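@channel sequence for tomorrow's demo:
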Amino acid sequence: MDRDTLRRVQLVQLEIAKEIKRICDKNGIDYFMDGGTLIGAVRHKGFIPWDDDLDFSMVRDQYERFLEIAPYELGEQFFLQTWYSDKGYGLPFAKIRKNGTLYIEEITEKCNCHQGIFVDIFPYDNLPKDDDERKKQGKILTFLKVLLKAKCRARPAYGSKRFEMNKFIKFVPFIMISKFLKKDYLIRTYDSIAQRSNTQNTGRLYCQCGSKYAKVTIPEIIFRKTIELPFEDTFFRAPEEYDRYLSSAYGDYMTPPPVEERDDRHQVKQVQF
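structure tokens (generated this afternoon):
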């Protein structure tokens, strides 16, 4: 994606983000900027210049409230995408898509789902206290996540052409197994396992996003209080202890990565506005 196109994408994402903020503020739903979006707010007071997505997060109960309210609150130009609202979508988090746009990524170009420009909304769930239980849960959820991707005709993220064939070969069994399982069954199983510790006070949370299971675990207390940080021409909410969070998740997050690592992470194939 060239720089001008990327900036146009970012501005559409900002439009979507303002709609999410409007709904949350109106209905008292707690949300916060996450990942590269939060780094962008702290380091650049807006988008990381080369970033091609925008991430918000909510703890599970707030996330469920948002999913319940959003279909009635969203403007007609937006679509709430979950694996319940879109049969061709197979990820354990929501996206708000802009209708009338296209943002086709290499890994999802064969998926039969809404593929407009989007903003991610990730739910956070409690992490099991027991180490063995965490390891067991991680293996099962990772297995189910890959099955759901295969079921929805998504491809694995290769990262490097050198590993493309190797990853595809490993992915083939999941394609075969997924043909014999219903998507609804896989979703119910995933949700049940992912949320089973939410009735316990475990003290740590993990994000239901596209990365590895519980790659970063966060003390629950970090998300209890939020503040507003400037982002482009507006303000969005962020964890009050954002430095503690970002330092534990990313290390020296204030130092930008080398130029060669500022690539097109989503391997975008087609964009239309």
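heads up for whoever presents: Helices lie at 3-27, 35-44, 60-73, 131-151, 164-178, 183-194, 242-250.
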